[in-house]
Amino acid sequence: MRDPLLSIEDLVVEFRDPHRPGGVLRAVDGVSLTIAPGEILGLVGESGSGKTTLGKTILRLYEPREGRLRLKGLDITHLDEAGLRPHRRAMQMVFQDPLSSFNPRHTVGEALAVPLRLHRLCAPSDLAARVARSLEEVGLRPDFADRYPHQMSGGQLQRAAIGRALTLSPELIVADEAVSKLDVSVRAQILNLLRAVQARTGLAMVFITHDLHVARFLCHRIAVMHFGKLLEIGPTEDVFQHPQHDYTRALLGTLHAREARARTPS
Amino acid sequence: MAASRRAAVLLLTVLAGAMVVFFAMKAAPGDPALSALGENARPELVAAFRRLHNLDLPVGEQFATWISGALRGDFGRSLTLAGGVPVGQLIAGRLPVTAFIGLYALILAGVISMIVGTVAALSRGTALDTLMTSFAVLGVSMPDFWLGYVLVFFLALNLPIFPSYGFVSPSDSLPGALLSGFLPALAIAAPMAAVFSRVLRAALLEVMHRPYVQVQRSLGLSSSFVFLHTIFRNALIPYVTIIGLQVRYLLGGVVVIERVFGIPGIGSLMVDGAFGRDYPVIQACALTFLVIVLGTNLLVDLLCARLDPKARGR
Amino acid sequence: MSRLLEVRNLRVTAGPLAVVRGIDIDLDEGETLGLIGESGSGKTVACLSLLRLLPDGLRTEADVLIYKDRDIASLPEREFRPLRGRELAMVFQDPVGSFNPAKRIGWHLRTAIARAGHDGPWRERALELLDGVGIPQPAAVLERYPHQLSGGMLQRALIAMIVALKPSLIVADEPTTNLDNIVEEQILALFRDLQKRLAAGFIFITHDIGVAAQIADRIAVMYAGQIVETGPTADILAAPRHPYTRGLIATANALAARAETLAEIPGQLPALDALPPGCGFAPRCAQARPACAQPQPMRPVGPGHAMRCLLDA
Amino acid sequence: MTEASHVAGISRRGVLGAGAGLGVLAGSGWSGPALAAPGVLRAAITGYNVVNTLDPAAAALIPEFYVIWGLYNGLLKFDSQMQLVPELAESYRVTDDGALEFKLRSGVKFHDGSVLTADDVKFTLERLMDEATRSPNRSKVSALSAIEVPDPLTVRLRTAEPFAPLLTFLTNARTGTQILSRKAVQADPAGYGRKPIGTGAYRLRAWEPGQALKLSLFEDYFIPGRNRIPEIEIPLIAEESSGVTALMGKQIDLTSTAPFADIPTLERRPDIKVLKQPGLNTRFLQLNTRKPPFDDVHFRRAVSLAINRDVLVRIVLFGEGVATPALIPPSLTASYDATPKPLTTFNAERARAELAKSKYGAGTTGAILTWGSGWWKRFGEVVAAQVNQVLGTNLTVEVTEANTVFSRIRAGDYQAGTWGWLGMIDPDEYSYDLLHSSGWRNFAGYANPALDTLLIQARRELDPARRGALYKQSEHLWIEDMPVIPLFCSNVHNLLASNVTGFTQLPYSNFGDQFATMAIG
Amino acid sequence: MRRALRSRTLVVGLGLTLLTLFGVIAGPWITPFSPTEMDFIAVLTPPDMTHWLGTDSFGRDVLSRVLSGGRVSLFISLCGVGIGAVLGVAAGMTAAWRGGMFEVALMAACDLLFAFPSFVLALFMMVVLGFGLHNIIIAVALAYLPIFARLARNLTRTLMHEPFVQAARLMGQGGGRILLREILPNIFPTLLVQASVGLAFGIVMEAGLSFLGLGVQPPMPSLGVILADGREYFTRGPWVLTMTGLVVSVALLGLNLLGDALRDLTDPRLRQAAGP
Q1: Quick check: A169 and A114 in contact, CB under 8 A?
Q2: pLDDT tens for residues D57-74?
């Protein structure tokens, strides 16, 4: 087995929640898993299962309470913002709501140029061309660079968001319900794009979703989460064919029922 | 648990407020003894003055004496008024007056804003709405003390309906207090009513567009039922909240208006104290206002908790 | 079965914008129509307009609007209001938002029960209703505030309120979209149960063709304010005719089959203020031809099956 | 609807609660002028809201005396023609050995029930004379060398030198010689100012500091009378204009002062009676001769010459007064010197010439201390404007609170201030007190041996005409040095509601002494 | 209809505000009279063609004084609100971003200042610092500091967890850069609304303090000083008080309308209840 790109050990994330006894919500509760380079790991579970929290903690957007995060063997669990900055490039994110993942006051072109400028990845004179190329890579015309987020559709923005994540040539992308807010007829476009991008660049991806169909389509491995705990993890078809956990079975049951009825409508 | 925590926070705030009030005043330039007695005052008189007002103690001890006295309602003696009258006595005599005027203004503002806000929301987009909204903006644009004078000019001097000056204590005569307090309360209430009615209008419109209102209409409930039980009731939450937030502005208005109308309340006492640099009086007044605001906030929070089940237990 | 609802050429406009551009709906008693469409296709607005629940600024027109042999288009609001709840009812997408957060569940049920004209103690009736929609410990639930219950529970409670009113037509607007998979499955089961228990007609709005497949007798697919295809569920799933319907079903099938790449519908949904002149789908359609720039009428393509497209015509 | 009325319910309870709380708390004090309680005279003191003490010996401010006059009596008093008549004394005479002998009325009772004796008179005057009392009016009695009490109803006063003003100083005016009860003072010497015990027609019932006082009729008052007003409420209204508003709105029946600007309007109103006459006062610019820039006589003269007093009267007083060439006001006819004096007559050219002689020039800065109520601030502003215009100086007005002004001027912590005593009744008070090197009101720090001698001579002179001549002479003497800059004399006013009768106004602006004769029609 | 109403609010608000600004800035060139020079001949003359708002008790032109006093009052309010806003926003944004004890302490301090009625706080400060122009500015700033600090902190906290800010962090942007570049432009409109409303209330506060005699001291004209003078001669010359107050009301009306219009125009996601 290859060395893991990212390894997570006994990760615990807590939030303050005055409504709960003890005043603490344990959103991620002792999760351990590894992500190999170039694999797509599906993180499935229902709302409140902690999958988004886990995804954002991997990126150190949240501070883990316990446990360890290793990026290519390097412990990044408690690096501060400055210490983290050199490693930020390696890990990017695509968010659920494409509109709110762009600053409404900046054009899409500016949004794509910032990381390039910040990490000095290209000469100022090449910036425009480089942004245009990034847009084209995700299937957008270069003239979208001058648009403001509210002037674009959800699908277009999500393409731009993927393009922005790719500018830094990351090794890992966390995609958090990246298609669930999109129109049904546009979802397939983005799923195809993600798959194509992964195939082309060989990056690893954590794909967070509640849609089992989508997870099964895209992911190499599946991790099932429930109430902050990791219930099971395994190659996609293993999990789908031979679920180990009762909860996984119940979850998959909804899928099978739907499929069955779709084939033989009442 | 929550209640005791709340009480602790409240007490801490009062204590911190007392410290701010006390030490800020101590930092003010000038010796209170000399400013009260004059710079050429004889040393033994100055010494006696300092002893009387505890000024001979170290500052920390002065504060301890002051705060422990304050807890018992003893705020020391006035430096200027009637040759050193106990400040606690002054405050006790005037607090009910300020409370009455403040409450009166609050009720007036509440009644006016409920009418204006509701009418504007229900007639949204029409000329009536524009009229009501304009009145609201105009109301918040008039300095309250100026409005007080204009009201006196028209409603007390030209049309002798209300008394032009002074105040009847409600303990002497409640109708008299209501009558003599009307113009000052109205002058304070006008800008408040403007703010309140805008908030109520916005809140009503906001609640009207909530899905549960649509659900209730889809069940065929009558519009008056939906308005009273759901729209108006739920709009009261932000409305009451804003009233709580605005109480501090309202009390600010009370200070000026009391002076303008010669109402013997805490506000005019504080202004007199400010003129005379009467530190004990100013400290006590500021602290009293602090306690009033905190008390009102507590009341508003309790009321909000009654109105909004989600806010309970917080 | 008798005809419950007949709608011809229903149009909803917001100022100069047409949100619903002339749709026809026929519904029999005991029948369930699945109305499929993406956000902005006008499906929700069309149904809200049937109950006259549209927000200010939206105008409804229809050539024919007949409910139970009554022309309800011309009814004044005073006479229409009693129909809401008792005859036409609606389940909304957001169960949490459907409840007045300041009132207990008991208050909501009491209100519904009173509206149903029920005599006698409301409490027993409420417990009975909650029990009927599968809510455990109904007595405790009556004392709860909405925020203390899960979305699934609230959706059940809302359904219980509607059951109390025994309406003849129930519009369900994506009632499971905001719910988790397992709960969604349970609510769908509850709807199927209701279909058996109540002799009501259902209009079930969804964007998920799989959900429609489970629950609907007939399906109508909406795109850009129009119904582009309608027919019996089995026919539509087995042999979709409109390119848009075909695209949706192909995508769903490809996902389920874990194909290498998904069948895409290229392009974006048209904006309301930039609708193409003829077929709304033409700009995204691989088979579009010049004639598509003309408005297309619904064409019958099979028994009870019609579509709005030049293909195969 | 239930929710709305619920809110109202809380508020209503709140109101009642506040009312009930007030009943408990307000027992100690007074809470404002009543609207129209029957049998209550609402006699407002306007322009002031500071009353520090009701001890005549300690009193300094005019509002304090306004009240004291109603609570106490002097041995003598002024009648409506400003003639001296006995009050607590039944009669008085000069004895053969030159002593002043007073026979007291018998059976006069103090508010605490004790009976007035000659011992109380002796106590009162000795207390006033005592340095420790620190009375602002000590100088009025400092000439006394002995006080004899031959019997309980006789008092003999002896002075080392003849002391002409003594009789006027024993009236119930702004004198501090109002007779106290020895018993009451000795019972609580420190707190006496808050619990005054006099022989007057009214006794103090309640005192809300800074706000109002309440008097009630003293049933055992020694002058019999019927239908006296049982209650007097004395609201203290800081702004004169508010006093007028209150009177016009019928919230008060009488005010002690009126804004000069409003007099013409008020005189035309049928529902208000305006009493007015030239007052016993002189308003002047108090200078501190120990501090720059007023330590230079030429600068002082320049300032005086730069002020046009007629304009001052018109602008500051709206015509309600007259310009005065020196300190002694026109009402004191025997001593008043009407001849214009060059140094107190507007002369821009000469002003600039004096400025040239002084060590200060154009651009000199200085602050005129004044207070924010009524016309005093205007007084300062107009003076500063005039002087700056003529001399090119940069005088500013410093506005603070009256008590502070008083303290600071008394302490010498000032450069200049608007000043002027109201209700001084003897030329000696306008001269000796203000300008004698040991005069107690000599805040200028002025000392002129020749003037000192002259003023003492005037004190000893018992003949009114010769005494008057001495004062006229003294004014020519000090005016060259200009330790104070005399400016004008203002009218005194009282405003009454038209149904109020029995108020006799005297030029020293009396007030509380009229309560006993007043009636509300 | 609503759009039209909104833009009408904007037009009227902006118009009145610009008129006010023009008046106070160009005041000396608009009226031929000096705001401080006394004319002892024309004392308390009613409004006429020469003196549009009449003269005051020293014969000074009321219009000139109102324009010049307006400048003083506006200056005080602008400086006070400006200082309060800059310091408050800086503190509030930093507190939200850094969290921890700094945030707790700052918010506790804000809560404490909030518990005093704002005018009482200002009055108190005037006693501590002494009367006068500079000290009113400090008092106004102190009254506004907690408002802006709390507002900026709450807005920043809301935006901090927005995906676009998280995206910025992932791109490797530093805290200061994110606050200035990503967050500030988005909260700025809301702060501007608060500032415009605050500017209006700052003027009222100055007027109130000076009206009582605790603020700006004569002969410097400020709106409060003019109103106080007008009150003194209200019976003889009611126009001084009435007209000055009317002008103040119109100016404040402009600011408040402008604030309303701006509030409507700002992103509804950021809308917050703002006090005066």
Answers
A1: no
A2: 988 888 999 999 999 999
Q: What is the pTM of this model?
A: 0.84
Shared-domain flag, residues C102 and C238? no
- Say how many domains are in chain A: 2
Per-residue pLDDT tens over the stretch D403-423: 778 878 888 889 999 998 777
Instruction: Give the whole-angstrom CA distance, residue B293 versus residue E114.
Output: 9
pLDDT digits (tens, 9 = 90+) for C120-131: 899 999 999 999
Q: Is residue A98 part of a domain?
A: no
Q: Which of D421, D512, D514 is nearest to D139 (CA)?
A: D421
Tell me how many domains chain C contains.
2
Q: A30 burial class (0-12, 13-18, 19+ CB within 10 angstroms)?
A: middle
Contact criterion met (CB < 8 Å) for E172 and A118: yes
The verdict on ipTM greater than 0.90 is no
Tell me the pLDDT band of E193, cut-offs 50, 70 and 90.
confident
Element (H, E) at C180: none
Q: What is the CATH number of the domain that holds B280?
A: 1.10.3720.10
Q: CB of C35 within 8 A of CB of C239?
A: no
Q: What is the CATH number of the domain that holds A77?
A: 3.40.50.300
β-pairing, C17-28 with D484-497? unpaired
Residues 341-400 of D with CB under 8 A from E: 372, 374, 377-378, 381-382, 384-385, 396-399
**Closest Cβ–Cβ partner in B212, B229, B307 for C99:** B212
pLDDT at B52: 77
* Structural domain boundaries, residue A210: 1-90+173-238
Query: CATH 3.10.105.10 residue ranges in chain D?
Result: 279-491
Instruction: Map residue C305 onto helix, strand or coil.
Output: strand
Strand order in the sheet with D100-104: D89-94, D100-104, D154-159, D144-151
Q: How near does any CA of chain B get to the CA of C22, in Å? A: 23
Query: Which DSSP string corresponds to E71-86?
Result: HHHHHHHHHHHHHHHH
CA distance A214 to C256: 8
In a domain, B92, yes or no: no
Tell whether B292 and B212 lie within a shared domain: yes
Identify whether residues B57 and B164 lie together within a single domain.
no
Q: Would you list the DSSP string of E175-219?
A: HHHIIIIIIHHHHHHHHHHHHHHHHHHHHHHHHHHHHHTSSSPTT
Query: How many angstroms separate the CA atoms of E237 and E216, rounded?
Result: 22
Please check whether residue A37 lies inside any domain of the structure.
yes
Touch between E and D (at least 3 CB pairs under 8 Å):
yes
Query: How does the average pLDDT of chain B come out, rounded?
Result: 86
- Write out the DSSP string of D202-248: EEEEEEETTTEEEEEE-TT-SS--SS--SEEEEEEES-HHHHHHHHH
Q: How many domains does chain B have?
A: 2
Task: Specify the CATH number for E63-274; select among 1.10.3720.10, 2.60.40.1180, 1.10.150.80, 2.40.170.10.
Answer: 1.10.3720.10
DSSP secondary structure string for all residues of A221-234: EEEEEETTEEEEEE
Domain coverage including residue C117: 95-166
Is B93 domain-assigned? no
CATH superfamily, region D279-491: Dipeptide-binding Protein; Domain 3 (3.10.105.10)
Question: Is residue A179 domain-shared with residue A63, that is, in the same domain?
Answer: yes
How would DSSP label each residue in D383-404? HHHHHHHHH--EEEEEEE-HHH
Q: Do E260 and B249 touch (CB under 8 A)?
A: no
pLDDT > 80? residue D120: yes
Residue B242: CB partners within 8 Å, gap ≥ 6?
B195, B196, B199, E273, E275
CA distance C58 to chain A (A): 24
3-state DSSP assignment of residue C66: strand
* Cβ-Cβ contacts under 8 Å, E123 against chain B: 255, 270-271, 274
